[in-house]
Amino acid sequence: MTDSRLYKRTIVKEEISSKHLDSTRSLRIFLPPGYNEVLSYPVIYCQDGEEFFNFGRIATTMTAGILDHGWEPAIIVGVDVNVKIRTSEYSPDGENHEAYIRFFAEEMLPFVESKYAVRADKSERILAGDSLGGTVSLHLALTYPHLFARVVSLSGAFLEPTRSRLQSEGDLSWLELYMLIGLDEEEVKTERGTFDFVEANRLSKALLEQKNVRLFYEEKPGKHVWGFWQKELPAILEKFFG
């Protein structure tokens, strides 16, 4: 039986014009039950915003956590993406990557913080993404360490460009990273070929540990699909807000 309480929620849609992207970008913003502008809330910024809401069911999961398990209420910001240019924006060697991360940090973040009661402290901001969304979330934190210090990666595409970036970094003890990888992700087909994401995440884990990242790493049976990530989201969110 469907619990109607979980679907009586507030999700606001916004459009933001970006000079860096030379286009507009859609946002969907979940406001927790009892949202009050006088208060302030931690915030999760999700890449692939539409998929996090529709396939990940992150708003439903957060509502259930708040109402049934006493989680700290949080705002969720889903940043939508055009799938046709997703790789060029999310991949660190993509032609639109720099423009995207500048949009995210220099335009989208101030826009949200000017309109909603989110906490403007890097310890209260979480970046979340799946696959290349996990990749761009990590690169955002590495590029803007004064803005972001907490990242959730669901089967991150931590391929050679990302590992090279990690090699070049100094001490990363300021960074908190949750990594999930499915053990059935040894042959993931992408626009740029087929890759072993299990090996890529294990190699990245070793680099991250060398750099003193506060790392929570999990390997579980699972494929490179939302069916896997959706089932894991409640436990992941509980780690941050439970």
From TrEMBL:
GO terms for molecular function: hydrolase activity. SUPFAM superfamilies: alpha/beta-Hydrolases (SSF53474). Coiled coil: none annotated. Keywords: Hydrolase. The keyword Acyltransferase does not apply. Transmembrane segments: none annotated. InterPro entries: AB_hydrolase_fold, Esterase-like, Mycobacterial_A85_antigen. Pfam families: Esterase (PF00756). This is Alpha/beta hydrolase-fold protein.
